[in-house]
Backbone:
């Protein structure tokens, strides 16, 4: 059996076992409901044979009272069964969403590889809901089975051929329904994949809408989304056709089966093998059997879609982490000495770099990919393919990612803000926040806003300009007061006067603590203790900013052009 199939089954099993009590309660109540439904035509047959045919008013009143009690039980059992099943469905979906969120937010990373943000959201919403619905479907599947069994027992008590027909005919009917559901399962999985991809593309385009408009790329973006959307629509239509074929085929099978039961019952009544009341009960049971078989069809459809979604959930939950857990420890408090020894990762080639504690170092990377790879290694978003990254003499690959990030804070160039106030985005109390705001020139941003630092910021900080977002993001990084701070191009969207102010403020605030500025900004590089040049993934030069600008043409081309 393929590993993915086994894992998807384990997801379904965990969803069911996590709500076992609710599912069991719903199954018992729903089974009582369907069993009671099956008893209704039987009781009517008894009324005909014992009360109507015998002309006894007392017997008629008694059985009508029994019928009323049965209907009251049906009403309450269905109501509470549906409530318990729906609760189990919602709770299971919630638990799956929590598990998906934990995996996506796991410090080891890796879940985002090969997936757009919208795809992850789709798995955490639509797929989680479909898996949760299995908990709502199973109790009614059990109930339908109970209804068939009660019907079969009642028919057996009237006639052995009728009872055997239902008992022996139901299993092959259910197996055929399972086979009919296979194409639906495959097409449902394809539908969810295409839908998730379309959601991911849409999210990506909306996030970059301002940039797309700025470069006049709207037609290309629309064409890309149109193609993705059309593919999603085709997959949805294929899944809808498969579901329609599935439902129609199952309905035809069950209808034919019920017709056979009714014909056999009519033949037995005409031959005198059963009474008129039994015939009425048999015809009523034959009509009633349509309900459990329709439930079987619905349950089979939900299970097919649940299995498809469970496979996608399982693929996400079992995605290997980018970096593994470890039990090493960094000193507390950390000094902040950083050393790279023969680090090769992505575009980096045997990088050796020693940064003493408290030093402010600039890194100029001629290749943007090398800058990104360096940030990944320093923050342990990835472990080097070769070599080691040490902080205070401890190999970061031996330390849990959470602990690494308590000591080494990497502020990426494309850092996003969150919905909330400006103060909540900076998220640090006391003097450190105010100093961070001043050092990053974000205090000027607050002064320009209507409610100052308490001004609400929309999602991703879209209510702010690019330069304002950069300054607030830098303030957030500075306010954390990390022993080692790695900042990537924090001033690309600000004017030169503000950039010079930020450079001075940053150097002042981070004095005595290790700071690595990965940038090509002359203003920032001018305040560093030394600059390291990465060319073709290797360290090719070190020295002061003024010295390198004077002596090296490649350095001048990188930072002054």
Residues:
């Amino acid at each position: 059996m393929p590993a993915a199939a086994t894992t998807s089954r384990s997801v379904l099993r965990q969803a069911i076992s996590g709500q076992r009590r609710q599912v069991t309660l719903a199954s018992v109540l729903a089974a009582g409901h369907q069993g009671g439904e099956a008893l209704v035509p039987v009781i009517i047959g008894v009324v005909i044979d014992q009360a109507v045919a015998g002309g006894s008013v007392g017997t008629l009143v008694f059985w009508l009272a029994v019928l009323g009690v049965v209907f009251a039980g049906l009403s309450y059992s269905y109501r509470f069964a549906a409530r318990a099943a729906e609760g189990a469905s919602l709770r299971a979906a919630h638990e799956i969403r929590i598990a998906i969120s934990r995996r996506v937010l796991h410090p080891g990373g890796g879940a985002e590889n090969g997936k757009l943000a919208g795809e992850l959201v789709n798995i955490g919403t639509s797929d989680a809901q479909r898996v949760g619905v299995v908990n709502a479907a199973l109790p009614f599947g059990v109930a339908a089975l109970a209804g068939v069994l009660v019907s079969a027992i009642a028919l057996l008590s009237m006639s052995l051929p009728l009872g055997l027909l239902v008992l022996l005919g139901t299993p092959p009917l259910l197996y055929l329904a399972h086979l009919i559901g296979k194409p639906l399962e495959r097409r449902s999985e394809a539908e969810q994949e295409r839908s998730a991809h379309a959601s991911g593309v849409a999210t990506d385009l909306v996030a970059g809408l301002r940039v797309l408009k700025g470069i006049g790329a709207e037609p290309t973006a629309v064409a890309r989304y149109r193609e993705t959307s059309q593919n999603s629509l085709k997959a949805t239509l294929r899944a809808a056709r498969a579901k329609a074929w599935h439902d129609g085929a199952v309905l035809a099978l069950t209808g034919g089966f019920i017709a056979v039961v009714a014909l056999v019952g009519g033949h037995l009544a005409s031959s005198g093998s059963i009474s008129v009341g039994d015939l009425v009960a048999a015809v009523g049971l034959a009509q009633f059997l349509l309900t459990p078989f329709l439930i079987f069809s619905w349950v089979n459809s939900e299970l097919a879609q649940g299995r498809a979604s469970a496979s996608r959930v399982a693929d996400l939950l079992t995605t290997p982490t980018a970096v593994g857990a470890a039990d090493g420890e960094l000193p507390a408090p950390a000094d902040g000495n950083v050393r790279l020894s023969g680090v090769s990762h992505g575009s980096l080639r045997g990088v050796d770099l020693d940064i003493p504690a408290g030093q402010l170092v600039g890194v100029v990377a001629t290749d943007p990919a090398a800058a990104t790879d360096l940030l990944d290694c320093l923050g342990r978003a990835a472990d080097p393919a070769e070599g080691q990254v040490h902080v205070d003499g401890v190999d970061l690959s031996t330390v849990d990612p959470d602990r690494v990030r308590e000591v080494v804070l990497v502020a990426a160039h494309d850092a996003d803000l969150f919905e909330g106030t400006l103060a909540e985005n900076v998220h640090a109390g006391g003097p450190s926040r105010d100093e961070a705001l001043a050092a990053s020139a974000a205090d000027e941003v607050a002064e320009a806003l209507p409610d100052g630092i308490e001004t609400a910021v929309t999602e991703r900080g879209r209510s702010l300009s690019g330069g304002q977002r950069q300054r607030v993001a830098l303030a957030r990084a500075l306010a954390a007061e990390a022993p080692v701070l790695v900042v990537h191009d924090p001033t690309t969207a600000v004017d030169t006067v503000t950039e010079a102010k930020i450079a001075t403020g940053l150097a002042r605030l981070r004095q005595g603590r290790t700071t690595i500025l990965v940038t090509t900004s002359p203003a920032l590089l001018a305040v560093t203790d030394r600059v390291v040049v990465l060319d073709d993934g290797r360290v090719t030069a070190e020295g002061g900013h003024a010295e390198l600008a004077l002596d090296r043409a490649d350095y001048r081309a990188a930072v002054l052009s």
Notes: The chain has three domains: 1-159+291-322, 160-273, 338-560. The two ends are 60 Å apart (CA to CA). The CA atoms of residues 158 and 407 lie 79 Å apart. The chain has 19 helices and twelve strands.
